[in-house]
Amino acid sequence: MSQEANNSEPKLLGLMAQFDDPDSLLAACEKVRKAGYTKTDAYTPFPLHGIDEALGIKPTILPWIVLTLGIIGGFTGLGLQYVTNADWYPFIISAKPVWSLPANIPVIFELVILHAAIAVFIGMLFLNKLPTFSNPLFRVPEFARATDDKFFLTIDATDEKYKPNKTRELLDGLLGQTDVIEVFHDPTPAELPKIIKFVGIGAAVVALIPPILLWRALYQTSTVPRINPIRDMDIQLRGDTQTKSPVFADGRTMRPRIPGTVARGEWVDPIMLTGIVPEAGEQNVLFLQDEVPPAEDEEKPAEEEKPADDQPAEDKPEAEEPADQEPMADAKAAEGDPAEENPVEGEAPAQPEEPEPNWVKIAPINVTNATLERGRNRYNIYCSVCHGLAGDGDGLVSQRALQMEQPTWIPPTNLHTDYLLIQPDGKLYNTITHGIRKMKGYGDQIPAEDRWAIVTYVRALQKTRTGTPEEIPAVEMKELEIKGQ
Amino acid sequence: MGGHHKPTITVTDDESIRLNPAWQSVRLVAMAVGVLALLLAMGIGMTQESSSYFFHSYLTSFVYFLSISLGALFFVPIHHLTRAGWSVVVRRVAELLSQNLIPMAILFLVILFPMLFGSHTLFEWNDPAKWNVDSPQYDELIAHKSGYLNSIFFTIRAIIYFGTWICIARYFYLNSLEQDGNGDKQITLKLQKWSALAIVLFALTVTFASFDWLMSLDPHWFSTIFGVYFFAGSALSFFAFITVVLFLLQQDGKMVNIITKEHYHDLGKYTFGFTLFWGYIAFSQFLLIWYANIPEETGWYLRRQENGWATVAILLIFGHFFIPFFGVMSRHVRRNKYLLTGWAVFILIMHYVDLYYIVMPQVAHGTAAPSFGLIDVCCIVGIGGLYISSLIWFATDKPLVPVKDPRLSESLALQNH
């Protein structure tokens, strides 16, 4: 097309012979192959049987690529399921073992097929050297008929056997009727036109906008609900709080515990849970159920029968007395000989006939600094609003109520009263759990461990009023002395 | 197809495409051996305490050879339906194989007659005590299924199946023979038209026949995919069998230049594909039943994992799927008729194991252990002998290639890529 138009001499790529029918092409291919040429190719308007053999084209290696990728896919499927099902997230589904080959085979099979299919597609493109956008052959005008009614054979100039005149003679002499065409390298520069560069850069910039918007949205709040294209994670067929379930006759979404049972892994020592040492042989787990709190049964009638009696008896005198050193001595003595006497004293008017349960005397947990810290933390959250940060019964709620002179307000108990000093830990714990008189039970809000932590913290608070200098370790005493000076 | 400048190739109807007369003696021997073997099997079976083993073994061999013919019955219409060109040279052999459905119908009487006279050694559901509420053997599931599973309706269905199959087989065969004489191209078009209906009828009858004759051996069990499972085995065994037949014919000096390695290659592709298909379907059936874990369904597999049947099951997984799958995967194997025939024989053996695994655990209503014995050998030899004998009888004096089929030259010039 353009040999004359070029100033620089274009590079010769090879020779192309044109034939009129497939038989002469096949014959020519045979001869060219026998002459020892290997970098050859043939172009026909339709698939031609025997052309592979005539040109000496080797069978494709595509099947081996597909087989390899298929086997890799199989092992990928196997490994993926082993790692996820049996190792990372061992989950038993419909009573099948976590590692169960029959259930894994469909995924293995699908991954074999997927890998093989991808290998066929990519491998085919790769082996055919696709995508190629342009081929120098397209610049030869005669070549257009390769899709119509002409047959072509090319010999590459890089072929070892290629010699300009000899090859041309060979092709000329093949059948006498061939037209030999020289194919030249594309003379146009390989650079892209500038306009395409600018359009490309512009398109790249425009393409950046959506990710930037997404990135911006990650760091901004919005009053509009977010776009939710895949809703199945958010909207699920499950029972939400305060909704009625269509599944069960009673309409509850969650099944209540079956009375008399303890769920696996939820067993807690009854002493730990109730603060009561069970009597010999008493192995009833019923009291573990929220529905049947045994200790509460004792308190509730008392609450209704004689609140008037109790409150003045406990609250008033204690509010007046800023408990000091004397109760401390009492408490120490009392702790030694325990709950048999004292609770009777305290509640004697309430239930003379009903004996106190066998309260745990000392909190059944390991008391460490961490426990005390936890107890302080929980106490400050739950208790201090009424009982005050120091336990004097002067919490903010109480102060406010007294200020407003609320008629029904009963001031909370001062935790430093004698009565509370000698109370066993179990009883204190029970009060936190189930409440007493006007105080509400906190058993539902505070886990058992934390309740015991609060008990120990209350004991520590009490100690701040009853402790003696002798009880302070010498090292810390020194520090205090230094600070005091 | 323009551009092929090859002259139209024809086949001359001479001795090279007709059966060697020497096979006539083979036919007589095969028939005699077949009858004797069957009588021997029957004799051994009857002298034993239970005839259950004989009937099950007979059914296994019967279904084995039936399935080969059913595969042929599938092959012929499907190639008319798809206007396939390559298969013309092998189609006559398939047509001849499908003719063997006629002797199979006669051999089925051995199963049908005892049942009509109230025998329930083979089909448990034929026992009236199972339907009777007052009987201690009352079986509620069988009683519910008795509307379908009873000897009268069973017989009617069997007549419908064999009637349909023989009609299809004869229709395609006789028209093909007619074309050999007059070369009428309209016959090809006519067969093309009817092949669609034939395929539909084939699919329905084979499905229900497999339900009746194999699945109902355990009347509690059901698997909706069982018909496909049976079909997969049938088609596979047909392609293996026709490969062996063509190989033998070529060894005998017939059709030497007509059947090329290109045709073996295509048959090998089918063998490969149906090996995978069988494995896929067999596993699909197993997985769904295994996963759902419904007692009526899993019982069937449970029986096949006890008493030594687990070994047979594992043999099937490898022998019927993995080994032949990799065996015929290579193009090199498929284009070599000796290797391909070797694999075909292997697959034919495995197909028997497959049917043995389906039928034999039901001996004495599901208490049997695998025990391949003289009765089994006699049944295979017996039915096989009659099968081969009748195949030779059908093939006598007929061209083994449809010599005037309009697509014959395309088939002769076949080249694979």
From TrEMBL, chain A:
GO molecular function: electron transfer activity; heme binding; metal ion binding
Coiled coil feature spans: none
Residue spans of biased composition, Basic and acidic residues class: 303-316
Pfam family, one: ActD
Biased segments, Acidic residues type: 293-302
InterPro entries in alphabetical order: ActD, Cyt_c-like_dom, Cyt_c-like_dom_sf
Sequence segments annotated as region (Disordered): 293-361
KW Signal (keyword) present: no
Residues annotated as transmembrane: 61-83, 103-127, 198-218
Keywords: Heme, Iron, Membrane, Metal-binding, Transmembrane, Transmembrane helix
Domain Cytochrome c intervals: 370-462
Name of this protein: Cytochrome c domain-containing protein
Organism this protein belongs to: Bremerella alba
UniProtKB/TrEMBL annotation, chain B:
Keywords annotated in UniProt: Membrane, Transmembrane, Transmembrane helix
Domain of life: Bacteria
Membrane spanning residue stretches: 28-47, 53-76, 97-117, 152-173, 194-215, 221-249, 270-292, 308-326, 338-359, 371-394
Stated name of the protein: Quinol:cytochrome C oxidoreductase
Organism: Bremerella alba
